C-alpha cells in the first residue's frame, strides 16, 4: 500500500512540473524514475517510452501506467496514472473557472483572439514535425494526403480513418513482403 | 445525461488518438461539431491554456473540454474516460511486452497509422486556420449529410492583422535561431499582448 501511495505522489509531482507533456516529460522521468527511485533502468524506460508512443492515448499517461505496473502491478499502474493526471485536473479546473468569470471583458476577448493566432501556428509546427517522422516514402505520403483531404471534405468520425489506415498499413506491408 | 456521453466520447478519443496530445485534437473537434457543446474558437482557447499550464497537453485538454461541457464533474469524467483505454491497453501490452515489440502486424499497422494520424491533425490545422485567419468557415454536414461546406461568414476574406501576426510567429518559431527553441508559452503571451494592443477581437 505504501508503494501505491509513493507512486501516486511521485507521478503527481512530475505531472505538476511538466510543461508540454510527451517529449518534455522524458528528462523528468529519467531523473525521478531511473536516478532517484530506481524503479526502472534507462533501457526499460526507453522501451516504455517507445511503446507509449505507438499505443493509443497520451504518451505521458502510457509511460506512467507502464512504470507503475512494473513497480506494483496493475494497481500500481492505475495509481501512477491517476497521480500524473491529478495536478492537471486541479489546475485546469481552477483556471477554467476563472476564465469563465472574466470572458466577457473586452481585453480578455482581444487577448484570446491574439492567442488563437499563435495556437494556429503551434498546431502547424506540430503537424510539420510529425510529418517528417510519418511520411517516409511515396505510399505514406499518399495516405497522409488522402486522410487530410477526405477528413476535410467528409463528415466522418476520425475513428474510421484510424481503423482504415491500420488496415492499409498491414496490407501494403504484406504485399511488399510477398513481392520481395 | 451528459456525463455518460462525455465518458464515452473521451474513451473513444483515448482509444483511437495515436501519437500523443495533439492527436486528440481531431477527435475533440469532432465532438464539438457533432454535439454543439463548444465552437472551434472555444477549442482554440482551451488548447492555448492547455499548452501554457503544467501537465500533458492531451490531459489538460480533456479536463478543460470536460469542464466546459459538464462542470467540475465533467472535467473529471472526461479525463478518466481518456485515460481508461491507455491503462487497459498498457496493462495488456506489459503482459506480452516482448511479443508486442516484435509483432510484425503491430509494426505494419503503424506504417499506415502514423501518416493517417498526421493527416487528421493537418485537417484540424486547416480548419482552425480558416476559422481564425480568414472569413471562411468550414461547416460540418448536418445529420444525414456527408459533404462538409465552406462559406464566407464575415465581410472580408482575409484578416490581415491576424495573418501578419501568424507570419511573424511562423518565422520566429522556425527560422530565427534565437527564438525558435523558446517555450510556446512565450509566444502565447506575446500574442495575447498583440491581441489586446491591436484589438484583435474588435472588442
Distinctive features:
heterodimer, A: 180 residues, mainly alpha, 0% strand, flat, B: mainly alpha, 2 domains, two-stranded antiparallel ribbon, 2 strands, globular
What does this molecule look like?
The complex is a heterodimer of chains A (180) and B (203). The model of chain A has no long low-confidence stretch (mean pLDDT 90). Chain A folds into two domains: 2-102, no CATH class; 106-179, no CATH class. Chain A starts with a helix and ends with a helix. Chain A has helices at residues 2-17, 22-36, 42-53, 59-102, 106-134, 138-153, 158-179. Chain A is flat, with a radius of gyration of 21 Å. Chain A has 180 residues and is mainly α. In chain A, α3 crosses α4 (59-102). With 203 residues, chain B is mainly α. Helix content of chain B is 70%, strand content 4%. Chain B has eight helices and two strands. In chain B, α1 packs across α4 and α3 packs across α4. The chains are: A mainly alpha (180), B mainly alpha (203). Chains A and B meet through α1, α3, α4, α5 and α6 of A and α1, α2, α3, α4 and α5 of B.
Amino acid at each position: 500500500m505504501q508503494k501505491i501511495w509513493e507512486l501516486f505522489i511521485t507521478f503527481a509531482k512530475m505531472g505538476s512540473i511538466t510543461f508540454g507533456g510527451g517529449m518534455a516529460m522524458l528528462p523528468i522521468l529519467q531523473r525521478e524514475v531511473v536516478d532517484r527511485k530506481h524503479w526502472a533502468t534507462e533501457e526499460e524506460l526507453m522501451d516504455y517510452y517507445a511503446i507509449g508512443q505507438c499505443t493509443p492515448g497520451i504518451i505521458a499517461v502510457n509511460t506512467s501506467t507502464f512504470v507503475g505496473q512494473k513497480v506494483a502491478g496493475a494497481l500500481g499502474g492505475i495509481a501512477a496514472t491517476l497521480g500524473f493526471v491529478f495536478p492537471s485536473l486541479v489546475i485546469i479546473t481552477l483556471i477554467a473557472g476563472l476564465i469563465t468569470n472574466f470572458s466577457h471583458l473586452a481585453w480578455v476577448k482581444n487577448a484570446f483572439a491574439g492567442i488563437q493566432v499563435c495556437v494556429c501556428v503551434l498546431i502547424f509546427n506540430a503537424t510539420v514535425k510529425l510529418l517528417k517522422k510519418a511520411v517516409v516514402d511515396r505510399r505514406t505520403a499518399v495516405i497522409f494526403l488522402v486522410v487530410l483531404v477526405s477528413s476535410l471534405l467528409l463528415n466522418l468520425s476520425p475513428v474510421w480513418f484510424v481503423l482504415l489506415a491500420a488496415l492499409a498499413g498491414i496490407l501494403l506491408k504484406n504485399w511488399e513482403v510477398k513481392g520481395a | 445525461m451528459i456525463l455518460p456521453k462525455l465518458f464515452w466520447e473521451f474513451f473513444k478519443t483515448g482509444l483511437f488518438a495515436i501519437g500523443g496530445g495533439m492527436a486528440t485534437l481531431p477527435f475533440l473537434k469532432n465532438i464539438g461539431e457533432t454535439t454543439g457543446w463548444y465552437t472551434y474558437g472555444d477549442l482554440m482557447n482551451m488548447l492555448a491554456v492547455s499548452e501554457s499550464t503544467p501537465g500533458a497537453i492531451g490531459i489538460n485538454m480533456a479536463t478543460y473540454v470536460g469542464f466546459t461541457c459538464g462542470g467540475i464533474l465533467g472535467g473529471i469524467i472526461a479525463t478518466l474516460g481518456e485515460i481508461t483505454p491507455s491503462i487497459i491497453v498498457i496493462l495488456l501490452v506489459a503482459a506480452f511486452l516482448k511479443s508486442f515489440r516484435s509483432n510484425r502486424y503491430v509494426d505494419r499497422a503503424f506504417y499506415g497509422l502514423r501518416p493517417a494520424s498526421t493527416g487528421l491533425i493537418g485537417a484540424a490545422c486547416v480548419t482552425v486556420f480558416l476559422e481564425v485567419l480568414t472569413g471562411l468557415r468550414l461547416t460540418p454536414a448536418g445529420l444525414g449529410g456527408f459533404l462538409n461546406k465552406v462559406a464566407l461568414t464575415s465581410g472580408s476574406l482575409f484578416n490581415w492583422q491576424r495573418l501578419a501576426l501568424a507570419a511573424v510567429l511562423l518565422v520566429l518559431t522556425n527560422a530565427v535561431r534565437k527564438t525558435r527553441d523558446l517555450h510556446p508559452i512565450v509566444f502565447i503571451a506575446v500574442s495575447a499582448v498583440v491581441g489586446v494592443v491591436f484589438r484583435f477581437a474588435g472588442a
